[in-house]
């Protein structure tokens, strides 16, 4: 990316962040190598909360594993408590369409809002299943005690189902980022302030999401009164595919800028990629590789286990003291031969409100004809009548379909076209003479008679 393009993007992003003003506190969000989580204490229904997360590029939080739940619990334990409520109820990304109950599954027929292992074994329910609610949509909230030291005891962090239309105390969003920038070192004027794409400001991030802006305060430089008091940089994807800041550190100007050598343009020992530093260089590897202990060589992240290969396992294997067993990635299961992996048809579990399409390793939900997904992936009726060309006459929208009605004086033929209705032959409405014309008719009388006010009799 060119410096001018990065600067324009950075300024545009800072303006949009300032306009958004989300009001998250310093401890209301947390980021790790996989993404970020944030708590919003705003009263919303499940649908409104889900939309609020989507509007900022995230989703309602999902917890497929106990480890993922632990990250959320740590965030909630450290979050500054707003107000004096002893207990909060926060929406999470778990919901159940009508008539999808299951007494045998850990999630009880509920599904997470993001595509993943919907058959996961982790759950954290506060009470037994409520079968009398199976006919209506239900959504899940997490109970959070605001007192210090509540930990994971009692009903703290436990899940409870309820009506999706209730306005609860808040909700938890998660934001997935495949790329992160490293935090910047204090250059003498104080720590950098980071603004993430979901409008969170912090000086304490250990992983800074792609698209974030860093504002670095600079120390006063007596020898250079024109030196800027702060410098701003953007976390971007560079031309070589790596992620880093739009300007290399140090960001703050110095009265005597040091000269750096281009170590990587000459001979170096890096097997794959080389990156210059002030006094030397370092090596890094392409996606799918990690740097070896020698600091120069690259190796695969997940080397193939020779035992698994000898066993004939297609994907991987689990090795215990008693046996070796072939395993498969999520969305697949071991085939009859015990070695090959076959796709799991998740659609047999009916995870979707309308139609389910199975794909290798996963599935996706679609809608019946006459419906379309909205921006929260719920199927809503298509109003075909908004298109003026749908019907020749009058259009009547129905749930999942529509009807075309002919205007008065016309009737529908076998092909659904509106043609003139000959009232004179169909109904004989007139007392004496009937004259048909396109879209209507007119009565008249024989010589010596006159038409009455009803327009029909003579």
TrEMBL record:
One of its GO terms (biological process) is endocytosis. PANTHER family: CHONDROLECTIN VARIANT CHODLFDELTAE, ENDOSIALIN. It comes from Poecilia formosa. Residues 1-20 form the signal peptide. It comes from the Eukaryota. Residues 343-377, 381-415 form the EGF-like domain. InterPro entries: C-type_lectin-like, C-type_lectin-like/link_sf, C-type_lectin_domain, cEGF, CTDL_fold, EGF, EGF-like_Ca-bd_dom, EGF-type_Asp/Asn_hydroxyl_site. Disulfide bonds join 385-395. This is CD248 molecule. Residues 32-164 form the C-type lectin domain. It is found in: Membrane; Secreted. One of its GO terms (cellular component) is membrane. SMART domains: CLECT, EGF, EGF_CA. The keyword Disulfide bond applies. Keywords: Disulfide bond, EGF-like domain, Endocytosis, Glycoprotein, Lectin, Membrane, Phosphoprotein, Receptor, Repeat, Secreted, Signal, Transmembrane, Transmembrane helix. It is a single-pass type I membrane protein. GO terms for molecular function: calcium ion binding; carbohydrate binding. Its main location: membrane.
